[in-house]
């Protein structure tokens, strides 16, 4: 497993954590699961377009 440490705006973190609770509840690993899903979706979007910035 890899470890990534990031800083995001407080309001984005609050919204994200609230939605994780709605979707996954208070389960161990829910945050990691949601972040992995978000990264996968981001990669799909950018790998399809061949986009490079």
UniProtKB/TrEMBL annotation:
GO terms for biological process: regulation of DNA-templated transcription. It comes from Thermococcus barophilus (strain DSM 11836 / MP). It comes from the Archaea. InterPro entries: Arc_rbn_hlx_hlx. Gene3D superfamilies: Met repressor-like (1.10.1220.10). This is XACb0070 ribbon-helix-helix domain-containing protein.
